[in-house]
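Translate structure to sequence.
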């Protein structure tokens, strides 16, 4: 049997929030629940009992309690949660008003550092909420951020949601069309932006793009500019613009609007690589209770912790991270390149700030290993307890790298969910061991199963990841989808009444999960479905390979696997390296995984949130249009895949 990479000790188990929650459930609901497996079964079999216990244990604040936990039974879509309850999302994140640091901001530029206490954060939100009210912002209006990951972004979100407005943000590396594809659909009344930002040693202007956006976004009545790249940016040519400091009021208190549980708090966006992004509206109550469940129970976050996630404001992990304020922890924000001005900059900050929960992506860990980043040999990371990773499957080699080069005594939590649910289906667990390449558990209250194409549950075999029962953080609606057709077709057209998430995954005998990639990007040679992560795992452990991308090419009535590789500088794809790649794949997977063609490319296209996009490349090699290149961080990379002579040959 495979040995775990890490097992929690008795002391950690005894001090874990999840252990306290188990005792709470035994006392309040069922005395027979003594293990995580029993707790998980109970949580999905009795959601009407489980979710109120999460509410109570996490201390959710509400102006009015609920009339019913499940208002419309167990149908999907259509279930309504905690009907009759009235609460405010921002009030729950601003429950503390003491001197403990709420936000610490670091960036790559000049070692800049800002710290705000919970008292200061409350005061600044109050001043901005007053300004938004003076601007005529009301419940249900949209407020948008074209912002880097700074404290002002969180302040703006909290101010907007405190009065019942809906917050939406995207990172400032989007182009004009990418911003319009998103904000143009939701028509914000107020837009927040910085004058610019820093990345990899470069200063990048934001105001020129804002001017281009405003030409086609007439809904915006006020643009609030935060100085970042310059101390006093010239905003005279930006319509409706005002400096942040000039916009604030003298308000000291916040009148938190008490709103229904499913009142929209965030509008998120699908990747947009296959067309105009879907605008996914998430409810305040569902987002809050789901995030608290994940942060408190699965991530073991406590008030004394400092939590960090390397993210932009356009990725759902930003929203997830910000909810840590409801726990009273200190949230560390970082803006800039994770490898500038030095490859291990994030770990230097982790030591300096004594980070206890460090969040990142599998791609970052893979790149860090390639850059020979070895934090445990250079930095004191004594306070670090948990590393979380998401964004793409965490390969076994990435897991082994963490324990070998970062820290041996660490709970490595690979988590998986998405923008669609603003949360996770699979999570970490402080009570369970960590196995290489395997997500520790299904999330409490999430009735996750793996199904075959004909709807039969599977274990030990790959299939479609589905959720067979409702959960509170399902979207409350898609924007501009009055009859709910887009919403239904996105998740429920494949298995009626069952949420199909679009991941190709396996439920293991240990009740863990293995994610093989997106099911719409799976390969199908000879009629056998293969997850792309199975190939990446083998290829990217070779020292010559920086990263890879695999797609299926329609060829002579069949589908053949095409592998693109980005090589280390100075390495060439000769016959010897091609043979080495094929042998590595064949010996560790199966002959069906072996690519028919291996092609070297200088760049691999990825979305702005950093995920590689197999679908765009598959369209290019089949001479099909890529509908929305504005969703890509490097759309020019697609040029390397056009009209390749190798793909016209046997």
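Result:
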């Amino acid at each position: 049997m495979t040995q775990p990479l890490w097992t929690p000790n008795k002391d950690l188990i005894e001090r874990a929030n999840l252990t306290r929650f188990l005792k709470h459930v035994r006392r309040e609901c069922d005395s027979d629940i003594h293990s995580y497996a029993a707790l998980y079964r109970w949580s999905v079999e009795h959601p009407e009992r489980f979710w109120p216990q999460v509410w109570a244990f996490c201390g959710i604040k509400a102006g009015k309690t609920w009339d019913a936990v499940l208002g419309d039974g167990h149908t999907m879509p259509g279930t309504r949660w905690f009907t009759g309850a009235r609460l405010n999302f921002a009030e729950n994140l601003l429950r503390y008003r003491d001197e403990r640091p709420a936000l610490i901001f670091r960036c790559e530029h000049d070692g800049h550092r800002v710290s705000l206490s919970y008292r200061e954060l409350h005061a600044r939100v109050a001043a901005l909420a007053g300004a938004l009210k003076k601007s005529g912002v009301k419940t249900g209006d949209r407020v948008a951020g074209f912002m880097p990951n700074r404290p002002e972004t969180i302040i703006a979100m909290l101010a907007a949601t405190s009065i019942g407005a809906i917050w939406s943000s995207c990172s400032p590396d989007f182009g004009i069309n990418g911003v319009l594809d998103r904000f143009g659909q939701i028509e914000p009344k107020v837009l927040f932006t910085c004058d610019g930002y820093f990345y990899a040693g470069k200063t990048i202007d934001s105001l020129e793009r804002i001017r281009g956006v405003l030409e086609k976004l007439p809904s915006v009545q006020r643009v609030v500019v935060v100085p970042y790249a310059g101390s006093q940016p010239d905003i005279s040519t930006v319509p409706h613009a005002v400096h942040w400091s000039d916009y604030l009021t003298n308000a000291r208190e916040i009148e938190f609007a008490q709103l229904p549980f499913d009142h929209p708090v965030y509008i998120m966006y699908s990747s947009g690589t296959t067309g105009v992004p879907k605008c996914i509206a998430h409810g305040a109550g569902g987002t809050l209770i789901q995030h608290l469940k994940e942060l408190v129970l699965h991530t073991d976050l406590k008030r004394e912790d400092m939590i960090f996630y390397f993210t932009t404001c356009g990725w759902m992990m930003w929203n997830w991270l910000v909810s840590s304020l409801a726990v009273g922890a200190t949230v560390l924000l970082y803006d800039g390149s994770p490898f500038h001005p030095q490859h291990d900059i994030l770990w230097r900050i982790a030591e300096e700030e004594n980070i206890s929960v460090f969040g990142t992506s599998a791609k970052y860990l893979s790149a860090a290993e390639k850059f020979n980043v070895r934090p445990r040999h250079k930095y004191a990371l004594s306070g670090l307890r948990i590393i979380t990773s998401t964004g793409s499957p965490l390969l076994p080699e990435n897991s082994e790298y963490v324990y070998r080069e970062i820290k041996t005594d660490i709970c490595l939590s690979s988590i998986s969910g998405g923008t669609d649910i603003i949360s996770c289906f699979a999570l970490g667990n402080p009570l369970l061991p960590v196995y290489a390449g395997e997500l520790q558990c299904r999330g409490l209250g999430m009735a996750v199963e793996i199904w075959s194409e004909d709807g039969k549950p599977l274990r030990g075999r790959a299939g479609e990841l589905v959720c067979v029962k409702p959960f509170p953080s399902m979207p409350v609606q898609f924007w501009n989808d009055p009859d709910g057709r887009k919403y239904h077709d996105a998740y429920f057209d494949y298995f009626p009444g069952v949420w199909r998430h679009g991941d190709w995954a396996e439920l293991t005998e240990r009740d863990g999960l293995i994610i093989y990639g997106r099911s719409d990007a799976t390969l199908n040679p000879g009629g056998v479905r293969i997850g792309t992560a199975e190939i990446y795992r083998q290829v990217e452990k070779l020292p010559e390979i920086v990263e890879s991308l695999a797609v299926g090419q329609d060829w002579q009535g069949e589908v053949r696997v095409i592998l693109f590789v980005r090589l280390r500088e100075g390495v060439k794809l000769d016959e010897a390296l091609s043979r080495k790649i094929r042998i590595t794949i064949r010996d560790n997977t199966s002959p069906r995984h072996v690519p028919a063609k291996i092609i070297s490319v200088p760049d691999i296209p990825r979305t702005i949130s950093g995920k590689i996009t197999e679908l765009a490349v598959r369209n290019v090699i089949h001479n099909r249009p890529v509908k929305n290149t504005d969703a890509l961080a490097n759309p020019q990379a697609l040029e390397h895949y056009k009209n390749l002579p190798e793909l016209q040959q046997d």
